Amino acid sequence: MDHAIVLFDGDCNFCDSSVQFIINHDPAGYFQFASLQSEIGEKLAREHNIPEDVDSLVLIEDGKAYVKSEGALRISHHLTGLWKLAYHLRPFPAAIRDGAYDVIANNRYKVFGKLNSCMLPPPHIRKRFLDK
Questions:
Q1: Per-residue pLDDT tens for 47-84?
Q2: For 59-91, b where at least 16 C-beta lie within 10 A, e where not — what string?
Q3: Contacts of 116 (CB under 8 A, 6+ apart)
């Protein structure tokens, strides 16, 4: 099975919760993860020409990088449950979707805070993290 990679802000509580959410709704293990601050995260960001101002969540799938709402909606397409339906928001103009995404991303530290420590996932989940 092919995998997609989710790069995330390893310092952000909201991003950490988002990764936990994805893990819980991705029983097939389609997604692998790496923090943007890790060596592998920085390498992937360079390889995929991800702008330096993108610092919350990036999806790398089929050799392409997707940021902001496009990345989030593409992730939702692979999740179980009603979350799959969010993918159908893609026809809305990207400027509107990204505007809403930016409001959350720009305020995530104020609202959700920063992490003091990283989670230690169980071994069957840990293997999905590229920055071990």
A1: 999 988 777 789 999 999 998 889 999 999 999 988 88
A2: bbbeeebbbbbbbbbbbbebbeeebeebeeeee
A3: none
